[in-house]
Structure to design on (507 residues):
C-alpha cells in the first residue's frame, strides 16, 4: 500500500480528497495532511510519502514552491496537483518540476481515480526497480541503505531464504549470465544473481513460518535432479524490516561458507553473538582445509608430481575431489587447494597457459559441476593441458563442430538440455564446452540455450495467441511457469502475459 500526503488550505477539500482515496483507491493510504505548502514540506520530510496530492494556490507557501522544494530533497516521490486555475503557466511550471499529473477542480471521484491510476502504475514500477537495486546492495553487504529498505519493503517483518543450484556464481564471466527477477506485481520478492539462484523475501503476513519453510522445501525439490545439487540457506525466524539488509548479507555469507560441490544441504541461520561469530567461522574454514591437507591423498599428490607421473596425478586429483565431497569441504576452500596444486603442476611441467583462459576454465569447472565426478572430469581436462603439446583438441578449431552443437540445441530445446547432457552427447568436458563457445566469440552455453528458448517461446505465442503461458513454458523446456516468466522478462523486458500475440514473427 502506498502512503499519501494530502495538502490543501481548505479542510473540507482535504476531507473530500481523503474520502475519495478511502472509497476509490484501495492501494493508497493517507498518512498525513497539511494546510499549506510549508506544513506540507515539513510533513513530507517527516513521513517521506510515496505520493503527494496538493492544491496549487495556498497561503504561506504555494503548491508549486512546495513541490520544487520536495524535488530538491532527491527523494523519489510522485506528485499530483489539484487546482481551479486553468492558466497554462501553472501546468507548464508543474510539469517542469516533475509533477506526475494535474487535476482541475471541481474534482469528481471518477476523475480523481482516472488521474491516479497511471500514477499508481508508475509507483509500482519504481518500487520494483528500487527493490532490485536494494537486493544487490544487501547481497554484497553495502551499508547505509536501512532507510531505503524501510521505505520500499513496507511490511513489519519478512521471511528470507536463498536457493542455489550447483556452484557459486562466476567471478570473471558473470556478465554472460542473467539476473532472475520477480514480477513487479508479485507479493513475494524474488531475486537471483543468475539463473541458478533464487533469493526469496516474503512478508510475514502473507504466510506462516511453517508454510514458508514448506514452500522453500518444494522449490528446492524442483531444482534438485539426478546430476545436480542444491544449497538452501534460510533465516530460522522472520526478520524485522530494519534488520533485513543484515539478514540477507548474513545468509549469503553462509551460502559461500557452506556450499560444497555435489552436496545437497539446508542451512538455518540463527541470531548469534557477534563477538563469537567470526571465531566460529574461522574455525569452520580451518577445519575443512586441515581435513584435506592432513589427508594422505595430498602427500600422494606431491609424490606423483615429483615423479611426473601423469596418470597418478589425475587419479589423486579425483580422490581429492571425492574426499572433499565426503567431508563437505566448502567450494571456496577446495578451489584454493586446487589452484595451489595446479600452480605446482604448471611449474613442474614448465607449462605457460593463457592465464585468463585458464582462470575462466576453472570458473566454468566449479560453476557447471553438478556432481563431484563432473568436477573431476573438468579439472582433468585442465590439468592434461599442462603436459600436452597440443593444448586444445582439434575440434575446438572447427566451426563445423560448433555448428553441430548449435543444431542439436535448436532441435532439442524443449527437452531437459543441460551442460552435463551436452557434454555426454558430444564427449567433451564442461569447461571445454564453454571454451568452445568463447573460442568462436559467442556467449556461454547457458546464455545461448536461454536465448534460443525465449526466441522459440516468442514464435509460439505469435502463432498461438490463445495458448496458456504454462503450456508455452513446457514447449520450450521450462517446467516451472513462474521461472519461465522471470527469465522471459529478463531477456525481453516484458512478461509473457504482456507480449503482443498473434503477429507474424517477421514483424
Amino acid at each position: 500500500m502506498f502512503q499519501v500526503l494530502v495538502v490543501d488550505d481548505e479542510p473540507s477539500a482535504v476531507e473530500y480528497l481523503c474520502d475519495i482515496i478511502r472509497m476509490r483507491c484501495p492501494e493508497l493510504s493517507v498518512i498525513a495532511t497539511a494546510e499549506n505548502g510549508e506544513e506540507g514540506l515539513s510533513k513530507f520530510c517527516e513521513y517521506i510519502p510515496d505520493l503527494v496530492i496538493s492544491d496549487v494556490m495556498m497561503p504561506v507557501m504555494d503548491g508549486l514552491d512546495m513541490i520544487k522544494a520536495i524535488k530538491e530533497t532527491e527523494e523519489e516521490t510522485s506528485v499530483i496537483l489539484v487546482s481551479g486555475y486553468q492558466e497554462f503557466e501553472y501546468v507548464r511550471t508543474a510539469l517542469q518540476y516533475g509533477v506526475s499529473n494535474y487535476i482541475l477542480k471541481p474534482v469528481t471521484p471518477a476523475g480523481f481515480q482516472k488521474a491516479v491510476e497511471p500514477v499508481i502504475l508508475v509507483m509500482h514500477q519504481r518500487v520494483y526497480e528500487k527493490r532490485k537495486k536494494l537486493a544487490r546492495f544487501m547481497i554484497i553487504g553495502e551499508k547505509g541503505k536501512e532507510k531505503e529498505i524501510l521505505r520500499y519493503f513496507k511490511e513489519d517483518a519478512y521471511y528470507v531464504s536463498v536457493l542455489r543450484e550447483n556452484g557459486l556464481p562466476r567471478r570473471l564471466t558473470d556478465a554472460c549470465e542473467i539476473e532472475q527477477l520477480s514480477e513487479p506485481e508479485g507479493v513475494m520478492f524474488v531475486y537471483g544473481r543468475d539463473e541458478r539462484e533464487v533469493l526469496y523475501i516474503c512478508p510475514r503476513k502473507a504466510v506462516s513460518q511453517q508454510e514458508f519453510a514448506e514452500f522453500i522445501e518444494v522449490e528446492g525439490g524442483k531444482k534438485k535432479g539426478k546430476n545436480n545439487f542444491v544449497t538452501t540457506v534460510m533465516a530460522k525466524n522472520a526478520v524485522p524490516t530494519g534488520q533485513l539488509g543484515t539478514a540477507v548479507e548474513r545468509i549469503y555469507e553462509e551460502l559461500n561458507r557452506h556450499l560444497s560441490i555435489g552436496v545437497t544441504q539446508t542451512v538455518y541461520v540463527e541470531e548469534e553473538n557477534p563477538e563469537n561469530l567470526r571465531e566460529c567461522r574461522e574455525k569452520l574454514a580451518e577445519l575443512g582445509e586441515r581435513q584435506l591437507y592432513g589427508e594422505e591423498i595430498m602427500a600422494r599428490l606431491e609424490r606423483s608430481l615429483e615423479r611426473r607421473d601423469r596418470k597418478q596425478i589425475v587419479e589423486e586429483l579425483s580422490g581429492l575431489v571425492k574426499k572433499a565431497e565426503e567431508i563437505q569441504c566448502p567450494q571456496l576452500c577446495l578451489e584454493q587447494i586446487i589452484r595451489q596444486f595446479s600452480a605446482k603442476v604448471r611449474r613442474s611441467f614448465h607449462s605457460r597457459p593463457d592465464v585468463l583462459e585458464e582462470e575462466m576454465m576453472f570458473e566454468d569447472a566449479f560453476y557447471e559441476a553438478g556432481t563431484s565426478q563432473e568436477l573431476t572430469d573438468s579439472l582433468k581436462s585442465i590439468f592434461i593441458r599442462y603436459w600436452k603439446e597440443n593444448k586444445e583438441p582439434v575440434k575446438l578449431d572447427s566451426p563445423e563442430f560448433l555448428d553441430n552443437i548449435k543444431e542439436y540445441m535448436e532441435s532439442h530445446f524443449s527437452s531437459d538440455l543441460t551442460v552435463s547432457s551436452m557434454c555426454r552427447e558430444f564427449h567433451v568436458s564442461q569447461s571445454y564446452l564453454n571454451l568452445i563457445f568463447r573460442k568462436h566469440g559467442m556467449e556461454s552455453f547457458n546464455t545461448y540455450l536461454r536465448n534460443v528458448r525465449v526466441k522459440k517461446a516468442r514464435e509460439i505465442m505469435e502463432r498461438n495467441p490463445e495458448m496458456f503461458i504454462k503450456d508455452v513454458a513446457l514447449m520450450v523446456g521450462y517446467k516451472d511457469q513462474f521461472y519461465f516468466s522471470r527469465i522471459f522478462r529478463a531477456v525481453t523486458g516484458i512478461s509473457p502475459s504482456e507480449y503482443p500475440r498473434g503477429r507474424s514473427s517477421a514483424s
